[in-house]
Amino acid sequence: MFNLVIPTDFSQENRETVFSFLDIFFQHLPKEGVTKLTLLNAYDTPRVGQSIIYNMDEKLSEISEEDLEKEANFIKERFGNVSDYQIEKCSQKGSLLNVLHLYDKKDEIDFVILSYKADNFFDKIFRNSELNPSNIVNSLKEPVLFLPKGQTPKDIKTILFGVDLKPFDNDKDFELFLKFAEFFGAEIKFIHINTGAEGMNEQLFHDTFDSKLSSFRGEYSYVEIQSPRVIDGYLEFTKENNPDMVVLIEREDNFLKSFLGDSFADNFSKSFTSPLLVLSEKYDNE
Fold first, then answer.
1. Is 222 in a helix, a strand, or coil?
2. How much is the pLDDT for 132?
């Protein structure tokens, strides 16, 4: 049904975050349904000059493959045969984004499931921000579900989808998201933050999304609220309504990122407590 690609660093914190989501996922997977879990580990050789171990890459590859096998066994022990699923293991040298790109070339990704904790201000100064949500999604061009570390997700019954009512041409991933929402039997609440003094945009929403939603078999609604700042409007609405999942569209020319170095997804991830699904503005069909 879905190919869920799960990067792992083999930590207990990462494992429990992902497993808590899989607990919910498998509750909805029908007995005859089949899904694939791809456990992915990206490793690299430490930069220590002349390596003491001559065949460092070979040793790290062996360790990575052994640890992936252990991780697969943890899944089998946790979930057993409650559902039909396949486990694939991918071990590759390189950065996480490069390894995900290499995997995507040979086997299509449906969703990347990533245990995530936003960097704080000082981390961002001294560390590479390559793994911020916006950079991951804009680079990978695949849907990424960020699971907040330390939080246990609820069953997904209500999904908040933030829209800016600009053209959105990634129909392929939007249709995949709709299947995801149907899989959980979730209601979608599309929310638009109006920063102007007046004027409603409900008709513009229907003009943009009605045709895209024609095949959706669930319930959806449109909500428009007033707020002087878009990010504040999203955070206030999610705090009051406590959705089970939030969806945002990451745009390459994002206003916040252009001026402040952050995107809406990056800002939202700093305080999110629900799974955050980020879709790329455009589908990369290369």
1. strand
2. 78
Least Cα distance to 156 among 270, 20, 16 occurs for: 20
Q: Residue 21 and residue 52: Cα distance in Å, rounded?
A: 41
Q: What does the buried/exposed string (b/e) look like for 62-92 if buried means 16 or more CB atoms within 10 Å of the residue's CB?
A: eebeebbeebeeebeeebeeebebebebbbb
Helix locations, the chain, DSSP H: 12-28, 56-79, 96-106, 121-126, 133-140, 171-184, 202-209, 230-241, 255-260, 264-269
Residue 18: both structure tokens together: 């992902």
Q: Which residue has the tokens 């206003």?
A: 255
**Residue burial 180-193, b: 16+ Cβ < 10 Å; e: rest:** bbebbebbbbbbbb
**What residue has token string 């949500």?**
133
* Contact criterion met (CB below 8 Å) for 192 and 222: yes
pLDDT of residue 128: 47
The per-residue pLDDT for range 150-170, each reduced to its tens digit, is 788 899 999 999 988 888 888
Which residues are CB-contacts of 38 (< 8 A; sequence separation ≥ 6)? 3, 4, 5, 6, 87, 88, 89, 90, 103, 107
pTM of structure: 0.87
Q: Phi-psi bin for 143: left (phi > 0), alpha (psi -120 to 50), beta?
A: beta
Do 209 and 163 contact (CB within 8 A), yes or no?
A: yes
Long-range Cβ pairs for the range 231-235 (8 Å, 24+): 231/256, 231/264, 231/267, 231/268, 233/193, 233/195, 234/162, 234/191, 234/193, 234/264, 234/268, 235/268, 235/271
Q: Which amino acid is at 146?
A: F
The CA-based dihedral angle spanning residues 212, 215, 219, 225, taken in that order and rounded to the nearest 10 degrees: 0
Task: Please state, in angstroms and rounded to a whole number, the distance separating the CA atoms of residues 187 and 155.
Answer: 12
Rounded Cα distance, 150 and 16, in Å: 8
Please give the C-alpha separations between residue 86 and each of 20, 91, 100, 248, in angstroms, as whole numbers.
Answer: 18, 17, 19, 29
